[in-house]
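Hi R.,

Here's the chain you asked about this morning:
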Amino acid sequence: MFNYKKLLTAILLNILTVAPLFAQTISTVTSSDVMYNTSNLATEDYEYYTFEYTADEDTTFKFATLASTADTYLYIFPKTSFDAAQMRESSTYRNSITGLQFNDDTPKNTIESAFSNVTVTGCYITRYCSYLSYNMTAGTTYTILVLEYSINYDFNSLTYVSSNAVIGTSHETSPLLNSDTN
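And the predicted structure, written out as C-alpha coordinates:
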Protein backbone atom coordinates (compact mmCIF):
# COMPACT_ATOMS: atom_id res chain seq x y z
CA MET A 1 0.00 0.00 0.00
CA PHE A 2 1.21 3.48 -0.90
CA ASN A 3 2.29 5.59 2.09
CA TYR A 4 0.87 9.10 1.57
CA LYS A 5 2.20 10.29 4.92
CA LYS A 6 5.81 9.61 3.84
CA LEU A 7 5.23 11.32 0.50
CA LEU A 8 3.72 14.40 2.15
CA THR A 9 6.55 14.53 4.70
CA ALA A 10 9.15 14.30 1.92
CA ILE A 11 7.46 17.07 -0.07
CA LEU A 12 7.22 19.36 2.96
CA LEU A 13 10.85 18.78 3.91
CA ASN A 14 11.91 19.56 0.36
CA ILE A 15 9.88 22.80 0.35
CA LEU A 16 11.28 23.89 3.71
CA THR A 17 14.87 23.33 2.64
CA VAL A 18 14.48 25.17 -0.68
CA ALA A 19 12.07 28.03 0.12
CA PRO A 20 13.37 31.09 1.93
CA LEU A 21 12.28 31.28 5.55
CA PHE A 22 11.50 34.98 5.41
CA ALA A 23 9.09 37.28 3.64
CA GLN A 24 11.49 39.31 1.49
CA THR A 25 10.21 42.77 0.58
CA ILE A 26 11.51 45.15 -2.09
CA SER A 27 10.21 48.73 -2.00
CA THR A 28 10.98 52.18 -3.31
CA VAL A 29 10.41 55.34 -1.28
CA THR A 30 10.83 58.99 -2.18
CA SER A 31 11.24 62.32 -0.43
CA SER A 32 7.46 62.75 -0.44
CA ASP A 33 6.97 59.67 1.81
CA VAL A 34 6.53 59.77 5.59
CA MET A 35 9.87 58.06 6.23
CA TYR A 36 11.87 60.88 4.56
CA ASN A 37 13.52 63.25 7.07
CA THR A 38 16.29 65.83 7.39
CA SER A 39 18.68 66.55 10.23
CA ASN A 40 20.66 69.74 10.61
CA LEU A 41 24.30 69.81 11.70
CA ALA A 42 25.65 73.35 11.72
CA THR A 43 23.90 74.73 8.62
CA GLU A 44 23.91 71.53 6.57
CA ASP A 45 20.87 69.27 6.16
CA TYR A 46 21.42 65.53 5.98
CA GLU A 47 18.61 63.62 4.30
CA TYR A 48 17.59 60.18 5.55
CA TYR A 49 14.85 57.57 5.68
CA THR A 50 13.68 55.77 8.83
CA PHE A 51 11.87 52.47 9.19
CA GLU A 52 10.85 50.30 12.14
CA TYR A 53 10.59 46.58 12.62
CA THR A 54 9.37 44.70 15.69
CA ALA A 55 10.67 41.15 15.88
CA ASP A 56 7.95 38.56 16.58
CA GLU A 57 10.64 36.03 17.47
CA ASP A 58 14.42 35.93 17.78
CA THR A 59 15.53 36.30 14.18
CA THR A 60 18.26 37.41 11.84
CA PHE A 61 16.96 40.47 10.00
CA LYS A 62 18.56 41.57 6.72
CA PHE A 63 18.31 44.96 5.04
CA ALA A 64 20.12 46.38 1.99
CA THR A 65 19.98 49.38 -0.27
CA LEU A 66 19.65 48.44 -3.95
CA ALA A 67 19.37 51.82 -5.66
CA SER A 68 19.32 55.44 -4.58
CA THR A 69 20.26 58.93 -5.59
CA ALA A 70 22.91 59.05 -2.85
CA ASP A 71 25.78 57.10 -1.37
CA THR A 72 24.23 55.52 1.74
CA TYR A 73 25.08 54.65 5.32
CA LEU A 74 22.89 51.99 6.94
CA TYR A 75 22.23 51.78 10.69
CA ILE A 76 20.13 49.31 12.69
CA PHE A 77 19.63 49.66 16.44
CA PRO A 78 17.00 49.13 19.16
CA LYS A 79 14.48 51.99 18.98
CA THR A 80 15.67 55.07 20.83
CA SER A 81 15.80 58.80 20.18
CA PHE A 82 18.69 59.81 17.93
CA ASP A 83 20.13 62.65 15.90
CA ALA A 84 20.89 61.55 12.33
CA ALA A 85 23.49 64.23 11.62
CA GLN A 86 25.41 63.29 14.75
CA MET A 87 25.04 59.63 13.76
CA ARG A 88 26.90 60.40 10.53
CA GLU A 89 29.50 62.76 11.96
CA SER A 90 30.39 61.45 15.41
CA SER A 91 31.80 58.05 16.30
CA THR A 92 31.41 58.97 19.99
CA TYR A 93 27.70 59.56 19.42
CA ARG A 94 27.30 56.28 17.44
CA ASN A 95 29.12 54.35 20.17
CA SER A 96 26.73 55.76 22.79
CA ILE A 97 23.77 53.91 21.22
CA THR A 98 23.56 50.38 22.64
CA GLY A 99 23.21 47.65 20.03
CA LEU A 100 23.98 49.88 17.04
CA GLN A 101 25.44 48.30 13.91
CA PHE A 102 26.26 50.23 10.75
CA ASN A 103 27.60 49.69 7.25
CA ASP A 104 28.90 51.99 4.58
CA ASP A 105 29.77 50.20 1.34
CA THR A 106 29.04 46.56 0.53
CA PRO A 107 30.02 44.79 -2.70
CA LYS A 108 27.15 44.23 -5.13
CA ASN A 109 27.64 40.44 -5.19
CA THR A 110 27.41 40.23 -1.37
CA ILE A 111 24.00 41.92 -1.38
CA GLU A 112 22.72 39.92 -4.34
CA SER A 113 23.75 36.61 -2.73
CA ALA A 114 22.12 37.53 0.61
CA PHE A 115 18.66 37.85 -0.99
CA SER A 116 16.83 35.96 -3.70
CA ASN A 117 16.16 37.57 -7.09
CA VAL A 118 17.51 41.07 -6.39
CA THR A 119 19.71 43.28 -8.54
CA VAL A 120 21.80 46.10 -7.17
CA THR A 121 21.62 48.97 -9.65
CA GLY A 122 23.56 51.45 -7.55
CA CYS A 123 23.46 53.92 -4.72
CA TYR A 124 24.81 56.89 -6.59
CA ILE A 125 27.21 54.36 -8.09
CA THR A 126 27.06 50.60 -7.55
CA ARG A 127 29.77 50.29 -4.93
CA TYR A 128 28.06 52.70 -2.53
CA CYS A 129 25.12 50.47 -1.48
CA SER A 130 24.83 49.18 2.08
CA TYR A 131 23.86 45.88 3.73
CA LEU A 132 23.41 44.60 7.29
CA SER A 133 22.42 41.32 8.85
CA TYR A 134 21.24 41.96 12.43
CA ASN A 135 20.31 39.46 15.16
CA MET A 136 17.05 40.72 16.68
CA THR A 137 15.35 39.78 19.92
CA ALA A 138 11.65 38.88 20.08
CA GLY A 139 9.41 41.73 21.21
CA THR A 140 11.97 44.47 20.57
CA THR A 141 11.33 47.31 18.11
CA TYR A 142 14.30 48.33 15.98
CA THR A 143 15.06 51.44 13.95
CA ILE A 144 16.48 51.08 10.46
CA LEU A 145 18.12 54.33 9.38
CA VAL A 146 19.37 54.95 5.82
CA LEU A 147 21.37 58.18 5.78
CA GLU A 148 23.09 59.94 2.90
CA TYR A 149 26.88 59.90 3.11
CA SER A 150 27.25 63.54 2.18
CA ILE A 151 25.01 66.59 1.99
CA ASN A 152 26.17 67.00 -1.61
CA TYR A 153 23.59 64.45 -2.80
CA ASP A 154 19.91 64.96 -3.48
CA PHE A 155 18.63 61.89 -1.63
CA ASN A 156 15.14 61.91 -3.14
CA SER A 157 14.76 58.19 -3.92
CA LEU A 158 15.68 54.89 -2.28
CA THR A 159 15.01 51.29 -3.31
CA TYR A 160 15.67 48.74 -0.58
CA VAL A 161 15.18 45.07 0.21
CA SER A 162 14.47 43.64 3.64
CA SER A 163 14.03 40.12 4.91
CA ASN A 164 10.82 41.19 6.67
CA ALA A 165 8.31 43.94 5.96
CA VAL A 166 9.29 47.21 7.63
CA ILE A 167 7.15 50.24 8.47
CA GLY A 168 8.19 53.71 7.33
CA THR A 169 8.23 56.22 10.17
CA SER A 170 8.69 59.95 10.46
CA HIS A 171 11.35 61.10 12.87
CA GLU A 172 11.95 64.27 14.83
CA THR A 173 15.62 64.93 15.48
CA SER A 174 16.76 64.98 19.07
CA PRO A 175 18.93 67.79 20.45
CA LEU A 176 22.63 67.43 19.64
CA LEU A 177 24.26 65.41 22.38
CA ASN A 178 27.83 66.48 21.65
CA SER A 179 29.92 68.24 19.05
CA ASP A 180 32.49 65.49 18.47
CA THR A 181 33.16 65.12 14.75
CA ASN A 182 35.32 61.99 14.62
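DSSP finds four helices and eleven strands in the chain.

Let me know if you need anything else.
M.
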